Amino acid sequence: METLPDGEREAVFRYFLRWNEHVALNRPMKTAMRADFEAALLYYADAGTPLGQALMRLDSENLGGFYARPPVQWYPLDDAAKIYPLSMKQNEMAVFRLSVYLKEPVAPEILQIALTFTVKRFPSFATTVKKGFFWHYLDAAKRRYAVEPETDVPCRPLNIAASGSQSFRVLYFENRISVEFFHVLTDGTGGMVFLKTLTAEYLRLLGVSVPPQDGVCDCSEAPDERETENGFALAKSAEKSAGFLDRPAVQMSGRLSPVKPCKILHFHFSAQKLRAAARERNATVTAYLLAQMFAAQKSATDERGGEISIQVPVNMRKFYPCETLRNFSLYCGVRLPLREITDADAILPAVSEQLVKKASKNAMNEMMNATLRMVRSLRWVPLAVKRPAAGIVYGFLGDKIFSNTLSNLGVVTLPREMTPHIDHFDFILGTAKTNRAACTLVTCGDTATFTISKLTADPSFEERLYRQFVEAGLEPRLEGSELYGY
Fold first, then answer.
1. What residue ranges do the domains of the chain occupy?
2. What pTM does this model have?
3. With b meaning 16 or more CB within 10 Å and e meaning fewer, what string describes 133-163?
4. Which fold has domain 263-481?
5. Does the pLDDT value for residue 393 go beyond 90?
C-alpha cells in the first residue's frame, strides 16, 4: 500500500471496505479469507497486472451473499448416498479424486480465490455431514474453504466428525489441480462439473474468458434447483428387485498394504488408437478394457477355481434426463469363471454380451428398485441402531463379491477457450477393503488415461496389463509410483 500512488491506494481501501460487507464469517475465518485476497493482489502485482484489472477480477460482487448470510439450507441424502456414512469404518471411506493437469504450474493464490468464488455455486457441496435421528444429512456450512498443497497419498479419508468440517478437499501439486470428494456429496459426473467450473474460474482470474457451457457453470448465477434433486425419485422403478446379493469373487493374491492406496499407476493412451482397437473387435472401449482386466487378473491370483467379477458403475443420467449434480449412478457386475478366462480377445464376446445385458435400463431399474426398497426398510429405524442393522440389510456393501472395479467416466468436453490450457485429466478411486485394485478411465482430447489404484505392492496385475496393451499396439505411456511422485 505504501508504494502505491494516492489514487490506487484509495481504490484498494474502498475495495476492502466493500469486500467487508460481503463477508460475515467468524473472526479467524474472515481474517484468513482477507489474507487470501491480499495474497492474490500481491500475486497480480508481481505478475505486472494493472491494479484496476486485478481489482476487477477480484470484484467482491463475485462473493454474492453466500458468505454474508447465515447457513439455513440442509439436504437429505440421495438414496445412493445414504449407504456411505453407514458403511464407514476407521480409515475406510468412499473417497474418489478427479484431477486436471494444466500446461502451466498452478498459482495457489489464484486457485484459492477461484475456490472461494466457485463453492457458492454448489450449495450441496458447501455442506457438512451431520447425524439426524433416522439418517445422516447434509447441513450448509458457511466457512472459508481452503486449497491445500498435496503432501499425502490420494483419497485419504476426510475428517467429517468435526463440527462444520467439509466433505471435499481441493489440492494442488505442480501443474495439477485435484478435488477429492466423499461419495456422499456426488458421483463422478457431478464431481467433474465442479472441477471444470473451478478450473474455468481459475483461468478467468488469470485473464482467460471461459463461457459457461460444456459442463462449466456460471458462478455469477444462482444454482438451479434441479442440480440438487434426488435423481432416484424421478426414475420409474421396476416390478422386480435384483442386483445386490451375489457370491464371493476371486481376489488377487497380493498381501494387503497398510498404506491405502500404496501405488497409483496411470496408463496414457491415444484415445483414437484405443477406440480403434475396440472397434476392430466389435466392442465398446469399456468392454475391451474389461476383457484385458479379466485376463490380467487371472495371472495375479493363486486361485484355480471360482469366478472373477468386475464392478462397473452405470450413469443413470443416460436413461433418465436429469440435471442433478448429486449421486445418480448404480453398478452392474460382469462375472466370468476363472477356468474359462484365456486371453482377452477370446473372452471379449462374453464380456460384451454381459455388459449389454447387465448395464441395460431394465437391469438398472431392477437394481434401483432394490435400492429404494432397502432404504425404505430402514426408514424408521433410529440411526443409533441402524448401523448394525445395515450390516445385515446391506449385505452387498462388502467388496468381496467383486474382484475389481472399472469406472469409465467417458469423454470430458470443454469450452473451446479452455482447451489450450489443459493437458489431460485423471480419475482415481479410493481402494476398498479387500479388492487389491480399482481401475478408472477418463478421456480428454486424444488422451485416454487408464488409472489403477493399488492395495497391494504385488505388481503382477499391472505388469500383465502393460504387456497386453503393448502387444495390442496401444503404446501406453506409463507414469506413477509407490509414493505418487512425492
1. 1-58, 263-481
2. 0.94
3. eebbbbbbbbbbbebeebeebbbbbbebeee
4. Chloramphenicol Acetyltransferase (3.30.559)
5. no
